[in-house]
Design a protein that fits this description.
This protein is of the alpha/beta class. It contains nine helices and seven strands, in the order E-E-H-E-H-E-H-E-H-E-H-E-H-H-H-H. Helix 7 packs across helix 8 and helix 8 packs across helix 9.
Length: 225
């Protein structure tokens, strides 16, 4: 089935703001990348309408007029984007929408900041298209996703238990019990954003792309039972 790509000025009448409907908003200021990602996502999720935006302002207009999307995919650096302000704002205004940042920048500090600001996923633009689709599918299923290009010489090996703090092991244990970030935050009496930072750090340190893979690696390494 062909992807249904809609420009940001096409409106769906009757859609109520913040009502979850079957759409995805791709926000990026590079038309070729935006169109390519739209085709890729459209092939993977043919039941979803895909809308595009070139600025943060356009993205918000689409979300208000078309209804809160199931997923935002957002470039880290494009007009109007200030991660420290934009991501928390989206998290607050569209709490049920998933937020994936797709970026050329993929250093660890950037990833930690992005996840701490409220993103549900970080996907490097340089990852293979199949891996990007797999990451978005995992995100739609409730996973917390960090995807970077494979660099065999730099891939993180599971650290020994002593290399993790007691708090990190607690978070790992609760992740393995399929607890959400909010549930873990309540259980440990910590903020939701603190838990996001812990999870992001653990994903990167353990060389895992999703929470499920993180739990499997932690068990294999003997970090948790």
């Amino acid at each position: 089935m062909n992807a249904h790509i809609h420009s940001s000025d096409i409106l769906r009448r009757g859609a109520k703001p913040h009502t979850m409907i079957d759409n995805i908003i791709i926000a990026d200021d590079h038309p070729m990348f935006r169109a390519g990602l739209g085709q890729l996502v459209g092939s993977a999720f043919p039941h979803l309408a895909i809308h595009q935006a070139g600025t943060v302002e356009e993205m918000l207009c689409v979300a208000e007029r078309e209804g809160a999307p199931q997923l935002f995919t957002i470039d880290l650096l494009f007009p109007g984007m200030d991660p420290a302000q934009t991501l928390p704002m989206l998290r607050d205004r569209f709490p049920r929408s998933s937020i994936a940042v797709v970026s050329m920048l993929d250093d660890d500090a950037t990833i930690d900041r992005v996840m701490g600001y409220g993103a549900d996923a970080f996907i490097a633009k340089s990852v293979h298209p199949d891996h990007m689709v797999a990451g978005l599918r995992a995100l739609q299923q409730g996973e917390f996703v960090v995807l970077k290009p494979d660099r065999p010489s730099m891939r993180a090996m599971p650290p020994p238990p002593a290399a993790l703090t007691e708090r990190q092991v607690e978070v790992l244990t609760l992740i393995a019990q399929k607890q959400s970030n909010k549930q873990i935050a309540r259980r440990l009496d910590l903020s939701h954003f603190t838990i996001r930072n812990h999870v992001s750090h653990l994903l990167r340190t353990m060389g895992a792309a999703t929470r499920s893979e993180l739990a499997e690696k932690a068990r294999s390494a003997g970090i948790i039972a």
